[in-house]
Amino acid sequence: MVTKDNFNEILDFANLFKDLDVDYCQYKPEVIQVERNSSDNKKDQIPPEFWAKKIIKLLDDASQILGNKFQCNSYKLKDLIVHKNKMYGREYKQCLGSQFQPCVGADGEVYVCTSHRGHKERSYGNLKDKNFSKIWADMNKRKCVMSQIENTEKFSKCSQLCKPHESNKVLWNIKKNLHKPELINDLKIKSKKIEEKIIHKSFI
Ligand code: SF4
């Protein structure tokens, strides 16, 4: 995790691991989550200039040192740098990704996503009252919760660069282009090829 406190150690990390028997070394930019912003230690997102001016060059150098072992969540870096009106790449109008990866809290609530866990109004139901299949089949409840987030709040209470952010971008792009048969055919072919390579389909 690259933060303002440790970025000076980016190259130390690369030099330390370059000769060790590890498969990869991954760098991730720090993204401030919404939960932390409700605490007394409120933090703001690290400004784009920090990533653009201080981090990119260091990561390039780390990549040279580590070779094939270098990994970086560069898509998150891109959104942190090109943050246009603090949107951070959130140009989608629906959060479709969360419909594939809800979050079950320790309290039994089935939350929209990890960012909203702990907020009852973001829950589709509680496992103590109904089993997951029944909760998930209640489309009215799911639509109601999502409409509040998407249409009323317009994502204003959502974490920036949340976990389903990337899948949201991809799925929104697909939804916008559903009328293009060539795109859909291309996606079907690609998904077939990917599916053949996945060993544990329920564990991705
Ligand atoms: S935080 Fe992300 S996943 Fe959660 S509701 Fe908002 S956009 Fe969707």
Mean pLDDT: 91
Rg over alpha carbons: 20 Å
Give the beta-strand count: 5
Please, how many helices? 8
Principal-axes shape call: globular
Structural class: mainly alpha
Helix percentage: 40-55%
Main sheet specs: 3 strands, antiparallel
The fraction of residues assigned to DSSP E strands is 5-15%
The termini sit apart by 22 Å
Please provide the ordered H/E string of secondary-structure elements.
HEHHEHEEEHHHH
User: What is bound: which ligands?
Assistant: iron/sulfur cluster
Structural overview:
The chain is built from eight helices and five strands, in the order αβααβαβββαααα. With 204 residues, the protein is mainly alpha-helical. The protein has a three-stranded antiparallel sheet. A two-stranded parallel ribbon has the order 1-2. Strand 3 (103-104) and strand 4 (109-111) form a beta hairpin. The longest helix has 19 residues, at 48-66. The radius of gyration is 20 Å and the shape is globular. 20% of the residues are buried. The structure holds iron/sulfur cluster. The site of iron/sulfur cluster has 12 residues, from loops.
Any chance you could write out the topology, listing elements then pairs?
Elements: H1 10-17, E1 25-27, H2 34-37, H3 48-66, E2 70-72, H4 74-81, E3 103-104, E4 109-111, E5 123-126, H5 132-137, H6 139-152, H7 165-176, H8 181-197
Parallel strand pairs: 1-2
Antiparallel strand pairs: 3-4, 4-5
Helix pairs in contact: 1-3
The chain binds iron/sulfur cluster.
Iron/sulfur cluster is lined by residues 95, 98, 112-113, 115-116, 149, 155, 158-159, 162, 164.
